Amino acid sequence: MENSNLLSLKDHTANPAPLGLLAFGMTTVLLNLHNSGFFEMNAMIFGMGIFYGGLAQVIAGILEAKKGNTFGLTAFTSYGFFWLSLVGLLVMPKLGWGSAASESAMVAYLIMWGIFTFLLFFGTLRMSRALQFVFATLALLFFLLALGDATGNSVIKTFTGFEGIICGGSAIYAGAGTLLNEVYGKDIFPLGIIKK
Asked: Do residues 167 and 102 make contact, with C-beta atoms less than 8 angstroms apart?
């Protein structure tokens, strides 16, 4: 006998991935324009790190949790708190809240984030080519940043800045593609979605 009292639920919440990807990508590009030598470290980078790279990604991660997306939750909230912690590492010593992180401490910090990102990269193998590129270039970025701090080599640091611009740009592409493909109902920006 068919039960006519079955309730059908549909998820009508918006996709938070474009917000998270754009927040990450834009903040990454701006920081790495500094790393490439285009301008000094300033309040613009700190502001983006706190409010867009930081808080917007945390919000995106929480929204991913509501959609049942464990990968999105883990990635967006983690990188949101990465940005907040990075701003903290740079600003707290200026406020007298502890001494500045040593180069070896920064190397350890960056290597841990590189390992974390490399592990998340394996999750992207079931998602899209666009996300694979974002996470591969981000893992490389963290390891190059660590190498630059470990050696103090200005050429490595400048090169790393340009690699970071590519990484951030790829996240902007993935975020804009996810958003516009949904709006238009077709592939405006090919993302290389992997069929499961």
From this structure: no
CA angle centred on 84, ends 127 and 69, rounded to 5°? 25
Q: Measuring CA to CA, which residue among 64, 67, 86 is closest to residue 76?
A: 64
Contact 26, 175 (CB under 8 A): no
Under 8 Å between Cβ of 164 and 113: no
Tens of pLDDT, residue by residue, the chain (196 residues): 555 677 777 778 999 999 999 999 999 999 999 999 999 999 999 999 999 999 999 999 999 999 999 999 999 999 999 999 999 999 999 999 999 999 999 999 999 999 999 999 999 999 999 999 999 999 999 999 999 999 999 999 999 999 999 999 999 999 999 999 999 999 999 999 998 7
Whole-model pTM: value is 0.93
